[in-house]
Structures are given as C-alpha cells and as structure tokens.
Amino acid sequence: MSKALPVMQETINAPPGAVIGFDEKLAAHGMELRAAAVDTLQVNVGKLCNQTCKHCHVDAGPKRKEIMTRETVEQVIHAVRKFAIPTVDITGGAPELNPSFRYLIRESRKLGSNVIVRHNLTVMFEPGQEDLPQFFRKHAIDVVSSLPYFLEQQTDAQRGRGVFEKSIEALRRLNAVGYGVEDSNLVLNLVYNPVGAFLPPPQASIEADFKRELMNRYDIVFNHLYTITNMPINRFLDYLRRSGNEERYLRKLVEAFNPATVDGLMCRNLVSVDWTGRLYDCDFNQMLEVGVAPELPQTIADFDPERFSRRRIMTGSHCFGCTAGAGSSCGGAVAVNS
Amino acid sequence: MSYYEEVDLDRFADIGKHRPDLFEKFMAWYQACQEDGALSRREKALIGLAVAHALQCPYCIDAFSQSCLESGSNMEQMTEAIHMASAIRGGAALIHGLQAQNSVNKVSM
Question: The domain spanning residue A105 has which CATH number?
Fold first, then answer.
C-alpha cells in the first residue's frame, strides 16, 4: 500500500527551476505556515471501520486492529479538562467501533466541549449501534457524514456496494430524531468527496444540488455540505497509480494552488492525536507518520496548547491537496474559488 | 505516434511561442467566457462539452469533461448535453435532404 507521494518535482516533470515544493510555493507568496490557535483536538480513535472506501486516506477497514486504548482515551480527556479544549473532533475508521467511543463523548460533553463525530452512516447498522441517533441527540453531538453523491452509482463506486441505500436509511433515522431539521439545533453536515481524480465543484453550488435532490428523491434534510479534496496518499494514491491518473492529478493540485486558502487551513487551528496518543498537525500527516515539529511535545500526555498555538506546521507535497482551488479542510472549502 | 497526444493539452501555451500577443488576447477572452455571468460556470462547461463533441476535438472533450465534473455535473447531465450536440448535428445533416430534393426536382419532369 502506497503511503506518501513521491517527490513531486520528479513526478510531474516540471521545468528546471520551477517552484513547486509546498514550503517554497508558500515562500514565493511571502507566506509561511504556522498555527493560529488550538481550538480543536481531533482524535483518531483507530483504523477499524465497517467500510473499505476507495479514497480513504486512513486505509481503514474491517481488518485493521489499531484501536485507541482506554488508557490513551483517559489521557485525551485529561488534556481536554486541563486546557478546556473548545472542540473535540472524533474520527477514525468508524470511531463508533472503538469500545471507549461513548465514554470519550460523555466525558468530553461533561467538560463542556463541543463534540463532532465523523460518522460514516452505515455503522449504525452494525450490532449494538442501532441507537446511535438517540445517543448523538442525547449528547447534542455535531454529526458530519460522508455522502459523496446523491446518486447510488457514484456513492457505491467509492464506498462499496450497498452503502448508498444504507446511508439513505441512516440519514432518515437521523432526521427522525431531529438531526439536520431546521431550528432543532442538532447539526447534520454532509461531506462531498469527488468520486475520482478531479477537484470538487464549488461548495455552495453542489450543496444546493444535494439539498434539492435529497429532498425531492428521499425527503432528507441536512445543514451544510462540505466539499473535501481527495488527498493523494495511501489508498487514493494507489487508485491514482492503478488508473494512470497520478501525474495529471498531482499537476492539477499544484497548478490550482490558491494562496487565499492558507489562512483557513485546518492545521492552523487543530492538533491531531493518533490511536497511540502521538500528536500531529493534521490527520493526513498522522497517516504519513509525520509528527509535530521535533521541538514540541510529541504525545497527548505531554500536550500543552501554549506551545502549540504558534507552532511551525510540518508540511509535504500532500499539502497541495488542501490548498487547491477553493481549498479543503475538515470543514470543507476554505476560500471562494478564484 | 498519434496525431493527437494527451500531453499536448498541457502544452497549449506553446502556441504562444509565436505571436504571443495574439495568444494572450485569445486566452484572456477564452477565460473570461467561462466565468460566472448570466450563465453559470456549470452551464458554460456543459455548452463547452456539447460544442467539443460537435467539433469532435479530443482536447476539448477531455478538458470540458473535467470542467463539467469540477463544476458539479454528473454523467447523466453530460450525456444529455452530448445528445443535444449530436441531435443538432443529425438534424443539420437531415435538413439538407431538402437541398437534394430541390436539386432532384430541378432536373426532374
């Protein structure tokens, strides 16, 4: 399984002297990438998942064994308590499959943190998970769910056969308890990923399509749609190579570099924790095993937001995935298309 | 070697090696045409795809297929645009049947 990008200069056969390394690209625009604050602790509780999506940057799936232990979860909760972390963003894999998932949520909510769960919808049909909509509602969790398209063919092509039908049923169940319903204060946001080697369309435009089509076809409502660019690492990079799209896609990301995205990049406001408690600048660096800058504490047990709030962000060629076009973050596009 | 090479699409700017002033004028016009206006970028990309098929230009078909996806169209919508181009091409051929009829009528008793 491919982890990281090759050196992009070689890959795209750029002309001599071209400035295409990510840090060099920033420097050419008079920019450097530093954190602004630590508003969010993004906790990846493990790589176990009930799905095996073709674009997954985690390489998550049913056979993965990496799971955050209760001891590490306690360290996360300790940090949330000690530093009054405003937002805990829980991801995976399917984070619900970690036995400590509900404990982490209950404790984080008791401490007053806003909690986001990156919920893949179909996990709701796994044994013991049927009450997830009620559990989410009880703790007023913000739910963010992937649905790459409002049609079955595209969704199943990316996420596996039968996923679309289950996802629609799961959305109905979330709507039934109030998620995504106007004035309910229960937030249901969807995520669009391109089903292939191309950039996402403008977020507002495709959100309007999703709202219209999901309402007309399935009577489903939601709050916002986030467009997220497929990151050329791990499983998606393998797809790019197998399909002969690697060079063209990487070139597209570099050529679409948009300096207006840099201020809004997610790495500037969050710290990412992996299943072992190690710290990263984002979930992508986590999967590439590129830890935070070496002068900083490396694990959640030693975390101190003071030292992380103006830190130097560790970058690589994959960062072009977050700065292309309208940009891409865990909260979707970060700049108006330019 | 084929007459059409995929990599040539990315070499379009090489046309500007000669008379760059003309190429720059073309590019400014070409890009301005595709901006959001009274028609959206998405609608313009679908028009581009249809025209590309009518012209049977492989570079344009490749470029506007990507533009359509990246402006939010799906294959069903793109196929409808291609059918529009094809239907008009077909109709344009067929209506010339009247030319044949006129020609035949002129020399017939």
Answer: 3.20.20.70
Task: Say whether B74 and A151 touch across the interface (CB within 8 A).
Answer: yes
Contact yes or no for B70 and A205 at CB 8 A: no
Amino acid letter for position B101: Q
Closest CA–CA distance from residue B25 to any residue of chain A (Å): 20
Q: How far apart are CA A89 and CA A43, in angstroms?
A: 6
- Give pTM, 2 decimals: 0.89
The answer as to whether A335 is a domain residue is no
In a domain, A98, yes or no: yes
Cβ contact A191:A146 at 8 Å = yes
Tens-digit pLDDT profile for residues B75-107: 999 999 999 999 999 999 999 999 999 999 999
Q: What is the largest CA-CA distance in chain A?
A: 58
Rounded to the nearest 10°, the torsion over CA B24, B26, B28, B31 is -130
Tally of domains within chain A? 1
Q: State the nearest Cα–Cα gap between B55 and chain A, in angstroms.
A: 24
**A198–B72: do the CB atoms touch at under 8 Å?**
no
ipTM above 0.85, yes or no: no
* A208 domain-assigned: yes
Range list of H helices, chain A:
8-11, 22-28, 70-83, 101-110, 132-138, 152-159, 163-176, 203-218, 234-242, 246-255, 283-287, 305-308, 320-323
Looking at the domain assignment, is residue A6 inside a domain? no
Measure the CA–CA gap between A309 and A39, rounded to whole angstroms: 9
Report the C-alpha gap between A301 and A69 in whole angstroms.
14
Mean pLDDT for the stretch of residues A280-305 = 96
- Which chain B residues touch A if contact means CB-CB below 8 Å? 10, 40-42, 66, 69-72, 74
Which superfamily does CATH assign the domain made up of B35-107 to? AhpD-like (1.20.1290.10)
Q: What is the residue range of A62's domain?
A: 19-323
Sign of CA dihedral B2, B3, B9, B11: positive
For A198, the closest of B10, B40, B69 (CB atoms) is B69
